[in-house]
Specification:
The chain is an alpha/beta fold and 271 residues long. The protein is built from twelve helices and eight strands. The two termini are 32 Å apart. Bound molecules: NADP nicotinamide-adenine-dinucleotide phosphate. NADP nicotinamide-adenine-dinucleotide phosphate binds next to helix 2 and helix 4.
Length: 271
């Protein structure tokens, strides 16, 4: 499957809420013609209605790809209507959390090319990261097109096994919430040290955003960046002695938190 196939055979977007709309906005901005896109959504937003895509219209018989962006709990109601596209050339690319490839194979047929992926919320501003893995019917060019579509909202990484999706969920899928909580707690700690709440929040947000951007852009790895700003017996060292404590610091805490999220992801995908 290639970008040309997409233009000729069409792309179906099943579910156009927060994630589906972020993706659609990225594709259209990247030059995909609205006439190549069929959106299925029971309550489309005014924004979707204004994009010139086919909306809740008759679908092409053999679309190049179906991007599945409904909530996992809506899957049972939404997917069977596309059963006729299974076991063929149409690639199904799902971003739904906790819905294993086997569940798609069960509904669509075991020969259906299926890509499962896990994005995260910074996708809303084009700064997401999505991990993806395909079943054995997915070709290299299918995966490459899947990546190109997901790169409309940020970076992509490929996985080696579907089981790794649970750990990805624990790190990057749920991760933005950990960072939001870091911002909250940094700001609260600043208030405890005498800063006004608004000022403390501005400092915390800009520090996390700036350090994140620096970590991505710099040639050094984050450990070296940390060493670079830690002078012996200085202020940063005083804080890092608390945060890097092997029993009570970040290492033990994040290990525990990410294990809890990963285990919960495993439980949810078992149904
Ligand atoms: N948001 C994230 O950060 C994130 C991260 C990782 C994975 N995901 C996955 O992305 C998927 C979408 O999440 P979201 O945050 O975009 O959810 P959302 O905003 O609720 O979008 C889902 C959309 O699907 C529509 N829908 C419901 N039933 C349908 C049906 N039978 N056929 C077609 N469309 C239907 C919903 O319409 P109504 O609202 O009218 O019901 C809604 O517009 C989920 O599976 C989620 O697990 C999201």
């Amino acid at each position: 499957m290639t970008l040309q196939d997409l233009g000729e055979r069409g792309l179906v977007l099943l579910g156009c809420g927060k994630m589906g709309s972020a993706l659609l906005a990225g594709w259209l901005k990247g030059g995909l013609l609205p006439a190549s896109v069929w959106v299925i959504d029971p309550h489309p937003s005014d924004w979707v209605k204004a994009q010139g895509v086919h909306l809740n219209a008759d679908l092409p018989k053999d679309p190049a790809i179906v991007l599945v962006a409904v909530k996992p709990q809506m899957m049972g109601a939404a997917l069977p209507s596309l059963q006729a596209m299974g076991n063929g050339r149409t690639v199904f690319l799902s971003i739904a959390a906790g819905t294993p490839i086997s569940a798609f194979e069960a509904t669509l047929g075991a020969k259906t090319p299926i890509i499962r992926s896990m994005p995260n919320t910074p996708a809303a501003i084009g700064r997401g990261i999505t991990a993806l893995i395909g079943n054995t019917h997915v070709t290299e060019s299918d995966l490459a097109l899947g990546e190109a579509l997901l790169q409309a909202v940020g970076q992509t990484v490929r996985l080696e096994t579907e089981a790794q999706i649970d750990a990805v969920t624990g790190v990057s899928g749920s991760g933005p919430a950990y960072v939001f909580h870091l911002i909250e707690t940094m700001a609260a700690a600043g208030v405890a040290q005498g800063l006004a709440p608004d000022l403390a929040m501005a400092l915390a947000k800009a520090t996390v955003a700036g350090a994140g951007a620096l970590a991505e852009e710099a040639d050094e790895d984050p450990a070296q960046l940390r060493v670079n700003v830690t002078s012996p017996n200085g202020t940063t060292q005083a804080a890092l002695e608390v945060l890097m404590d092997s029993q009570s610091g970040f290492p033990a805490l994040l290990n525990k938190a990410i294990a809890a999220a990963t285990n919960r992801a495993k439980e949810l995908s078992r149904g």
